[in-house]
Fold this protein.
Amino acid sequence: MQELSHYIDGARVAGASGRLAEVFNPATGEVQAQVPLASTDEVNRAVEIAAAAQPGWAATNPQRRARVLMKFVALLNRDMDKLAEALSREHGKTLPDAAGDVQRGLEVVEFCIGAPHHLKGEFTDSAGPGIDMYSMRQPLGVTAGITPFNFPAMIPMWMFAPAIACGNAFILKPSERDPSVPIMLAELMEEAGLPKGVLQVVNGDKEAVDAILHHPVIQSIGFVGSTPIAQYIYGTGCANGKRVQCFGGAKNHMIVMPDADMDQAADALVGSGYGAAGERCMAISVAVPVGDQTADRLVEKLIPRIEKLKVGPYTAGNDVDYGPVVTAAAKEKILGLVQSGVDQGAELVVDGRDFQLQGYEDGFFVGPHLFDRVTKDMDIYTQEIFGPVLSTVRAQSYDEALSLAMDHEYGNGTAIFTRDGDTARDFAQRINIGMVGVNVPIPVPLAYHTFGGWKKSMFGDLNQHGPDAFRFYTRTKTVTARWPSGIKEGGEFSIPVME
């Protein structure tokens, strides 16, 4: 049995707590490795090393820090296939999807190469007689990130790339379900020239999370995961005086107007709803066709597409549409919610409950499901399923469709499919959701814009990547400077004002 490790002070380090978690092969259901779960002392040791390494890294000028990221990008491209295979083996997603996971993280690193520009401050000449004012962005110190299983490459890079570009040290606590790729990324960063101790990976569970939350040296925490845990981390981190950004659950609606191209809309729903087995926070899980005729046409287009989906392990080739879900518990939860939809009166148009893959009967595969005539009081509508399940909620008007998305407690992403520019513009203006697609089903912004939801999908003031990342990982210091010109008038005892 392979035993994985932490990555501390530039080396793979065996766990010392004596506690281990099992890492499964989702396709076979077999345990393929064990990962150590860090104790509080192990986290504290990593923070101590990070605190010692950070001042020297912060003193390295931004252009030289950017050159490390340039080299890191080259190494990511060199090892893309190796990273994708390791990711697929532990997560279960297809190889093309795994490579996309790495690629979207790489794009954030590319944006962070512009750190010398993004870290520039402001300057005002002659703010007063002989007085200049200027601001500078300075690193926070030691920062940390707690990342989820569904994007074990992309989301860690969303966090540590800007943090390190800004001159911080970073402690990464990845998901214990697929921990290999984060350690590989840390090794590549050091191969690119990052000093030891600036980026460290500590595997763990709640004990490690709480150690991060309560450590007085850690200045900021990023988190992506479920909403209840996001609320806990946000509340605890803020109470301990840390800067915190937490991203939670989602229930993303796609409005389909009567004038939409139904083939395009159906293709978009299948790709966004079932890709990665639905284990994406930006997956479309609710289709909202406007009008019964639109709904009938859409469902008619969806059924054959969904029935043709190829489900299998990543080793079966690149024509597999999606693989298994990450654990047996995830599979059980998904099928339980599907059954609740049947029990509560939704129409199960495509039933994947009996799906079995020959030779992989013990794997965590879930067949595709399509519900029609779902209502907003049903569990399959109110809860995030995080599986290959698409719910169709019929709306009788555009305003009713808009209200469905606006009234839901989650506000991560949404989309509208229409040929009418006025409708699309009205939708984009009025919707109370953070990321909006117009004829785009998964509206994940590119690296130079910011990623973030609204409502119970996001806790904090600043989004991930883009310009917000450089704001989150720095503090602004403003300096007012006066160089006396030889005039000595004595002290002034009132607040200076403009004359």
In short: The CA atoms of residues 75 and 188 lie 7 Å apart. The mean pLDDT is 96. The first strand starts at residue 2 and ends at 3.
